[in-house]
Design goal:
single chain, 220 residues, alpha/beta, Rossmann fold, Arc Repressor Mutant, subunit A, 2 domains, two-stranded antiparallel sheet, 10 helices, elongated
Length: 220
């Protein structure tokens, strides 16, 4: 079972989500909390840490943004999905870049919520179309030297960086080849090299890597 913690100060919403997820037999085990303070106290004494936190942003005393930052530093093994009424692109992009593993608005359907939780548990992240658009509109390039998913320093070539940026724009190998005047086989080789260097398993992983490492050029 996936151990979940739901942190939201709205009782009706909190109870509804908890009941929904707990009703799915042998899949989720949800503990709910009405404040960050109570949740952090729980973490000090619980037998097993939650694997994923579903986190609201607007809460008294300590908001979700501050709690996300705290958990990234003190409990990096806990995955975080933001669950908020806000859909501001800059806010979404900022939270993903600062370490959140997914972002959903509270009007998402239950199927997407379940899908997001399972993807974060199995793959480490969940990026839907609206989050991808937010990231595309609020990204930039900073450096070629970065770290792979295991924290090992790597350096991407100029060509690999160019191809990574085009991958982030959802271009196919053929489209990238046409834009850069390369063969499709050459592009495939660079894409495989990127996967190997970064430790990512798929294209979505490469996009998240580019965002987290600030390698994503704002060319939209």
């Amino acid at each position: 079972m996936i151990r979940l913690a739901l942190i939201d100060d709205q009782q009706l919403f909190r109870e509804g989500i908890s009941n929904l997820l707990n009703s799915i037999t042998d899949t989720f085990n949800v503990e709910s909390f009405n404040s960050a303070k109570i949740f952090l106290e729980y973490l000090k004494h619980c037998e097993a840490l939650p694997e994923i936190v579903l986190l609201d942003l607007e809460m008294p005393e300590m908001n979700g943004i501050d709690l996300n930052n705290y958990l990234q530093k003190e409990y990096p093994q806990i995955k975080i999905i933001i669950l908020s009424v806000h859909a501001n692109d800059k806010l979404v992009a900022s939270l993903i870049r600062s370490g959140a593993d997914g972002y959903l608005t509270k009007n998402c359907d239950k199927e997407e919520l379940i899908k997001a939780i399972k993807n974060v548990h199995e793959q480490g992240f969940y990026i839907n179309k609206s989050t991808m658009q937010a990231l595309q509109q609020n990204s930039f390039i900073k450096r070629n030297v970065s770290e792979n998913i295991n924290g090992i320093p790597i350096e991407l070539s100029k060509r690999e960086t160019e191809i990574l940026q085009l991958i982030c724009k959802e271009n196919s190998n053929a489209e990238i080849a046409a834009q850069l005047f390369l063969s499709v086989r050459t592009v495939e080789g660079h894409r495989n090299s990127l996967l190997q260097k970064t430790g990512c398993r798929n294209t979505a992983g490469l996009v998240l890597f580019a965002i987290r490492q600030q390698l994503y050029l704002d060319i939209f």
